Amino acid sequence: MIYLAYPILLTLATAMERTWPGWLLVRDQGPHLVLATVIAIALSAGPVAGCFGGLVGGVLLAGVEDAWMGGLLIGYMGLGIVIGLMRGQLLAERVLVASLVAVVATPVAELVRLVFAAPPGPGAWLLGTAIAAPYTALAAAPVFAAVRAVTSLFMPER
Hints:
Elements (H helix, E strand, L loop, with lengths): L1 H17 L14 H13 L1 H18 L4 H17 L9 H22 L5 H33 L4
Helix pairs in contact: 1-2, 1-3, 1-6, 2-3, 2-4, 2-5, 2-6, 3-4, 4-5, 5-6
C-alpha cells in the first residue's frame, strides 16, 4: 500500500513544482519539491523505497519538463539509494536532517543532470543551483512531515 501512496505524493509534488506561483520564484527558480520528496521517502523508508521514489519522481519530472530522462533517473534514484543507506547514521527522524540533506542533494542532482544535458552557459546554471539548494531545503521541512505521516500510517512498525 505504501508503494501506492508514494507515487501519489510524488505526483502532487510534481504538480506543485511545475505550477509554483511566479511571485514565489526567486530569479525564475523555485524549490525542487520532487527531489525533497525523494529525500523524505529515502529517510523515512530506506534505500529501496528511496530508489523507487527516485524512479517515479524522475519519470514524472521528465514527462512534464524538457529534460533528458536519464539524468533525472540516475540522479534521483542514486540519491534515493545513498540517502536511504545513510538514514540510520543521519538521525532520519529529524526534520532538520531532511533540510540539510536537501542543501547537499540539490547540487548533486543538478551536477548529474549537467552531465546529460549541459546548459548553454554555466553562469545561469550556477546561479539557479545556488538559489534552488536553500529554497529546496526550506521546502523539505513540510514535505518531510507529510511523507513521515504517510509512512507511519502505512508502515506503523517504523
